[in-house]
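As described in the Methods, two query proteins were run sequentially through the folding procedure within a single session, without resetting any intermediate state between them. The first query and its resulting structure tokens are shown here.
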Amino acid sequence: MLTTVSILAFLVASIAWIVGDALIVGFHRPDKTEHARFIALAGSDNGAFYTRINNRRLAAGALIGQYTAPLFLAGLWAHWVILRDAAHPEVGLTGLALLAIGIIYSPLAHAGFYPLALASARLQEALDRSGTAEWEPDAGDPAAHSPEVTACAPHVRRAERFLALAWVPSIGAICLGWLIICVPLAAGWTALPRWAVLFTPLVQMLPWSLLPRLPYPGKPLLNGALFNIVNLVWAIALLCLAPGLHE
């Protein structure tokens, strides 16, 4: 019973984070030509998603991760049940510990898009007020003749660096954890069939990584939700296998 509840918690958290990712990304992919000056100032096109923000939508998307991360942690109980009884349990449990660390880091990485969005919106407003919206890459300094733009641009770059510092350790720990967990699954050391490894998030990332390149309704809503889509696939697979698990 507890194993099933744990898997359901993991599933609900995955759905919540997919919704959060969709709310953060929004409905419009920025045009790199239209935002050329912004991208030149910011150093990447990440902030260009947030030049025109809906603050309530963005805040809701950022905060969903904060309040549903405990469900991901609860979902690790089912994984512990699977891995504790495996041959060489120390292997799988090491991966599970790394997975827990990555999940603990995740809310900050998820919410880190909010300050980036605020800084990006402020920079875009400064660009609009500067009266030089059109800019070509060979036109020289994109911040020239606008002290306000010069003052706002560093905030976007700092927010980008903060996001990277929060995001990379979280995703790194999660990916390494799943890589290690795949070893006992693929080796047949657990009560799950060996083919269950095909539904693990790390393996599922390969086909799902094509999603941003494919047409789908509402694109680009799900372009930033790949990690949580594969979590959902894994949770559904585990739920189907749950009757065969023993606590």
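Immediately afterward, the second query was submitted; its sequence and tokens are:
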Amino acid sequence: MGKWISMFLMAVIITVLLFWGLAGLIGRPDELLFVIGIIISLQCSLIITLLISILEKLPKKK
């Protein structure tokens, strides 16, 4: 489970840096849309990480 937490944190950091980088290239974004976009990205990465963790814990069929 520890590697999935580190993968989630890495995804969070990359997402935030990507959003700040794109905002710097585009110009000053609308603050509301910027915050909503970051929140949606973080939630999606958390859901994907948790689903992978659950799939690994399921018993394998032989």
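The mean pLDDT is 75. We note this only descriptively and draw no conclusion about the first query from it.
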